[in-house]
Amino acid sequence: MIPLIIDTDPGVDDAFALALALASPEVDLRAVTTVFGNVPLASTTDNALRLLELCGRPDVPVAAGADRPLVHPHPHRARYAHGSDGLSGRASTLPTPSRAPAEVDAVTLMTEVLTAAEQPVTIAAVGPLTNVALLLAAHPSVRSKIGRLVVMGGGLDVGNVTATSEFNIWSDPEAARRVLVEEDLPTVVVPLDLTLRCGVDLDWLAALDAASQVGSALVGLTADYQRYYQRMGWQGTVLHDAVAVAEAVSPGLLTSTSYPVDVDCTTGPARGALLADRRSALISTESGVDQRRRVDIALDADLDRVRAFVLDRLRAL
């Protein structure tokens, strides 16, 4: 079994990511922690509770985390893509939570889960990295309990908030730099460069809709999200966070390459950009860049296999 913590800001694609983890028999989902992001913290936390209820797992503890970035205010939410409540305005159609959030905060819950774990725990971070940065800063002793960190974030050749920056990293670049540059954990970053290529079409959504009540409910959350991608020329939707969780529950599903990385924390037009040095090893070494921390960046995959993997798991719910 893969012990797993999901740190998330639901979010339509986060909803599919959570459901995928719950549908994966090799996963032991130990906790869900929430963070500001697509919508404010109160909404992301309520959405997480409702999604666990939908999937029949209200027993998984949920703890609310950071409601703002480490340094600068969050400029805006992502209602333009995810709707007013983060779930296309349809959060209220999901079951009412039968449990309240944990009395402890997200960092405390993560620390408790990691401290108690008898084997390394995977953390799938599919929102801004504020909670993870705070965890590693305040509780450095738990680093040894983290087997792998899988992050949905960044875009090497494309952004979705600015020309260079992806939403999760851009939402708190200082936290992202702390986690991706200053720490030393086995890390896989799943960027827009790959997740956009893994987009699912209307037939894929129809197959999930017909599979079960849970599948139908998930597809029902995508209305605003689909309209956003239709404006970009895609008939269907893009499940960014589910692609990252697919790698968390099935290591090696995505093909990764190791690069030295940095995060732009300036206040200029490239703020929030994930910078990977893709030059030859010789040039990187001679320039001293190769001394920086390297992370694995997932830039390729068998796209049909990824889509089928997510669909087959979700249909089983």
Automatic annotation (TrEMBL):
<protein>
    <submittedName>
        <fullName>Pyrimidine-specific ribonucleoside hydrolase</fullName>
    </submittedName>
</protein>
<dbReference type="GO" id="GO:0006152">
    <property type="term" value="P:purine nucleoside catabolic process"/>
</dbReference>
<dbReference type="InterPro" id="IPR023186">
    <property type="entry name" value="IUNH"/>
</dbReference>
<dbReference type="GO" id="GO:0008477">
    <property type="term" value="F:purine nucleosidase activity"/>
</dbReference>
<dbReference type="InterPro" id="IPR001910">
    <property type="entry name" value="Inosine/uridine_hydrolase_dom"/>
</dbReference>
<keyword id="KW-0326">Glycosidase</keyword>
<feature type="domain" description="Inosine/uridine-preferring nucleoside hydrolase">
    <location>
        <begin position="4"/>
        <end position="307"/>
    </location>
</feature>
<dbReference type="GO" id="GO:0005829">
    <property type="term" value="C:cytosol"/>
</dbReference>
<dbReference type="Pfam" id="PF01156">
    <property type="entry name" value="IU_nuc_hydro"/>
</dbReference>
<dbReference type="InterPro" id="IPR036452">
    <property type="entry name" value="Ribo_hydro-like"/>
</dbReference>
<keyword id="KW-0378">Hydrolase</keyword>
